[in-house]
Structures are given as structure tokens and as C-alpha cells.
Amino acid sequence: MTTPTNDTVIAKYEAWLNDPLIDTATKEELRGLEGQEKEITDRFYRDLEFGTGGLRGVMGAGTNRLNAYTVGKATQGLANWLLAGASAEAAPSVVIAHDSRNYSPEFALDAALVLAGNGIVTYLFSALRPTPQLSYAVRELKASSGIVITASHNPPEYNGYKAYGSDGCQLIPEEAEQVISAISQIAGFDEVKRVSREEAEAKGLLRWLGEEADQQYIDTVVAQSLNADLIKGGIGEKFSVVFTPLHGTGNMPVREVLKKVGFNNVHIVPEQEQPDGYFSTVKSPNPEEREAFTLAIKLAQEVDADIIIGTDPDADRMGAVVKNNEGEYVVLTGNQSGALMVHYVLSQLKERGQLPDNGVVVKTIVTSELGAEIARSYGAAVENTLTGFKYIGEKMTRYEQTGERSFLFGYEESYGYLTGTYARDKDAIVAALLISEAAAYYSSQGKTLYDVLLELYAKFGFYLEGLESRTLKGFDGVQKIGAIMDDWRQNPPAEISGVKVERVLDYGKGQDGLRPENVLKYLLEDGSWFCLRPSGTEPKIKVYFAVKGESNDSASAALQTLKTAVMERVDRNE
């Protein structure tokens, strides 16, 4: 990245202060930054860019912040891209949804009014909705594109803007680059076209989606159930589920799906039931973290719950908590939940004689090999993608077009899962259904999900994984992350803790037919591996670890040794 000069940053800062289209409140916010050189630099040293999760950043005034102006400019770029590719016979249309974050409804409506200003019909959900429902709606309405206003599980000061293609999949890099190019050609905010809500509605350019669209989505998710008869046959009355939507969009759809399948003993964490853009009961609304389940575990202990499930603010990630053999509640990793669902889905399809000969499970390059081994044991193929569910969705669309594979399940270690082909993004609603149904099914056989996980380890090996990250904010942070990646790329280790590094996979040069991406993966002689990857959605560098042992103790020890050795070098670079 080119280092921005102070003159360049100040010029952008002053341009905003002098722009007649910038509102008074925004200018007052910027004037309050006078003398804060570092803060001004962070706000103006770049424009927000599309990453693995689209446009995402801290809310506030500036080109490197999410606000009405950057949302408007991004939407104008998207509109220009859509109109350039539109045929005379098919005018473009867009579906928009938003989550529970502060300003999400306002950003969603603003985007809709910009699209309407460009003559593009926009379907806008009347209130907060899950991200996977947006993906489904794009496909159902045969829209040209979709937008979700969300920052997923990021802290409350963040918001974001995910853009989708006509197949309901987040824009793949080639498409995103075209949109970015279209955005970059917008010289000023005077090129952003807008109409009023009243005009957009009167012209039929703004159309609202409500209960009918909701029911279609709910029914489609319920159709993915594999054991509804068993649940409705009695076990759903006694099997106890605790659910937390973590102040987000999952509350109503998860409850309705579970109820329709037959789960009637569901307890909602009351403190986290209602939408709250500040996520006031948690440090982070992230079901990957045990702390997010503190209140849910307390409730589960009170009602003796069989399983706890939680969804992130836009309900595309799902975390599960189960009892171990000592009766303690333990949070499953994304890899563990994914492996359990792969096993459950494929075993049930096989039992019914519905497992296709050309079935495929798709996972990412940083996801555990346990699920892959399970899938292969059922005769399914396994394919890897880069990190980001859009790459799984891209493969799903290709399978649909060519018929070469039948998609069975897709997942990534970061708690994203999908079965069924109704959407092209991870869906915490269907994942909540599947993990609860699997737990109830095995409960009917006298087993817990923890018991089943141990059985899988005993059969396939003790696969353990870990994730470490370092948050490095601002322009300096971007530079440091780049320096860390450069050091590991230019000076690859010959060994780690006495174990030989057998192979280095530099995805920046492209690997296994995948697009080039700034990711480094090191394969060790003992079958373990670790991977360095700058986050596409947060100011972080992430380091993934995986080992395989003959016992849980040996695998745990090997994992800790690997983590310690690698992170010592990462922290030195930092």
C-alpha cells in the first residue's frame, strides 16, 4: 500500500468540510478532529474496499468510515455496474436487508433511494432480517443483485455493506473489482442520484417485503429437516433447547423453524432476545467466543438444557454448546459442529437411500480435515475453497449449471454452514435446526453430541484446531500486517519446534486452481499445519492451526507447542 502523504489526507479532509452536499452534523464531527492528525489520517488515508465480507468499517465521518455518503457512493457504483450490464429486455432489480446494528435501517433505506434514483426497482425488507434470507430472496425474486447492511459479529462501532449477485452469492472478486472500478469513477457526491421515499414508492421503485416473503423462507428452511417425524413424535416435547440471538436477527426465524419441526421446549435468553445495536450484554456478539454464551449457559443450568445454540447479529453464523461427560457445558468449535453436521446429514441420507453418487461437501482451506474424512467415508467428494462463503456459493452455482456434483453440505471453521441449495450464503437458521435435530436424534439413542464427537475422533483420529489473531488498527496496522506476511513469505521456516516444514503453499501465487489470495499455509512432516491470513473484514492477522493425534491429550499438547512456536515469531514481527 502506498503511504499517504499528509497533504493528500488533509486535502480529502478539507474537501469534506467544504462540500455543500455534506450535512452540518457530519462537518461538526470533522471539525472536532482538528489537531488529531492520527485520527484524521485513519479516516481519510483510503476509501473503504470490498474484502471477503464486502464493505465494512467503523461508522463515522470520512472516506475510510461507513456513513451515508460512503454507502451512497457505493450504491451508485453498484447501480452503474448493474445498468451497464442490463439488457433491453430485463431491467435490473435489487433486494435489500439489514440487521440490528445502529444505523442499519437508515443505511438500507438510503441505499434503496439511491437505486430508485437510478430507476432500479428495489425490494426492501420492512424490518431486520437474517443475511441468508436476503440470499434466498434474491434467488426467489430473480433479482439482479442484493445488499445487506451488516457488520456480522464485529464490535458495535462497526457496520458494513455486503453486495450480492443474481445467484444470491456475495460478489466474487472479479465482480467486486468491477463494482470498485465503477465506484472509483464517481468524482463527487453530486453524482449520487437520490429520490425521496415518497417518490420511490409512488413510482413503484421501492417495494416492501413482509410476512409472505418470511413464510416462504421459513418453509424452505424447515424442508431441510431430516427427522421431523421423530421430533414431532414426542422427543421434541422433552428435548430442551436454550437459544440466544445475541440481540440480532435470529430471534424470530430460529424460534419459528424449531417450532415447526416440533421443538416445543425452547428457552430464549431474555436479556439477549431483543435487538440492540450496542450488544450491551456481551463484549462481542460472536458465537465463536465462550463469553457470548455466559447468560445462555446460566439459563441452561437452570433448565437442564440438552443443547445451547446462538446466532450472530445477522444470523449467518451459529455456535453450539453441549454437555461433556462430566455434565459441563462446552462450546463446540466451528470445525466440531461442522463435522457433526456432515456426519448427521450424510448418515441420514444414506439410511434413506438418498445419498447421491456425485455428492460433494465443500469446505475452506483453513477448515479441519475431520469433516472431509467423514464425508469421504460416505463416498462423497470433498472440495476446498479460499476463505469466504462466497467461494462455496460460487461452486454451488457451478454445480447447478453443470450437474457435475450434487451439493450436500458447505461449511467453514468460522461457524458458517449450509445445507440445501435455496441460498448461496451461510445460514445460521438452518444450522440451528440441524444441530438441534442431530442432538435430539442421538439423544433418542442414549447419546449426546459430545459422545458422537468422541466416536468420530476414535474412528478418524483426534483432529484439533486453533485460531490466534492479532488486532492491528489503522494505517500503521495495515503496514504491520503486510510486514508480517512479507517476512513469513520471504523467510519460510525450515522447521517448527523440531518438526520439518514439508511444504509451503503460497496462495498469493495461486494454488490448486484457486484465485490468488494473500494466504500462506505451512504443511509439517507430522501432518499438522498452520496458516497465516490477513482478515478481509477486520483489522487483524489470523493464524490457524491444526494437528492430528492418537489421543485428545497428545493432540492438545501438539497444538499448544505449535501455537507457541508460531506466535512467538508473529509477535516478534509485530
Written overview of the protein:
The protein is α/β, with parallel strands linked by helices and 574 residues long. 42% of the residues lie in helices and 20% in strands. It contains 19 helices and 22 strands. Strand 8 (241-244), helix 11 (251-261) and strand 9 (266-268) form a beta-alpha-beta unit. The longest helix has 22 residues, at 552-573. The protein is globular and about 70 Å long.
The low-confidence parts are none
**What class would the helix/strand composition place it in?**
alpha/beta
**Amino-to-carboxy terminus distance:** 17 Å
| Largest sheet properties | 7 strands, mixed
Number of helices: 19
| Strand arrangement in the largest pleated sheet | 1-2-6-5-3-4-7
- DSSP helix fraction: 40-55%
What value does the average pLDDT take?
A: 95
Write the layout of secondary structure elements.
Elements: H1 6-18, H2 24-31, H3 37-44, E1 50-51, E2 54-58, H4 68-85, E3 93-98, H5 104-117, E4 121-125, H6 131-140, E5 145-149, E6 158-164, H7 173-184, H8 197-202, E7 206-209, H9 211-222, H10 228-238, E8 241-244, H11 251-261, E9 266-268, H12 294-303, E10 307-311, E11 318-323, E12 329-331, H13 334-351, E13 359-364, H14 370-377, E14 381-385, H15 389-402, E15 406-412, E16 416-418, H16 428-443, H17 449-460, E17 462-471, H18 474-490, E18 495-496, E19 499-506, E20 520-524, E21 529-534, E22 540-549, H19 552-573
Parallel strand pairs: 3-4, 3-5, 4-7, 8-9, 8-10, 13-14, 13-15
Antiparallel strand pairs: 1-2, 2-6, 5-6, 10-11, 11-12, 15-16, 17-22, 18-19, 19-20, 20-21, 21-22
Helix pairs in contact: 4-5, 4-7, 9-11, 11-16, 13-14, 13-16
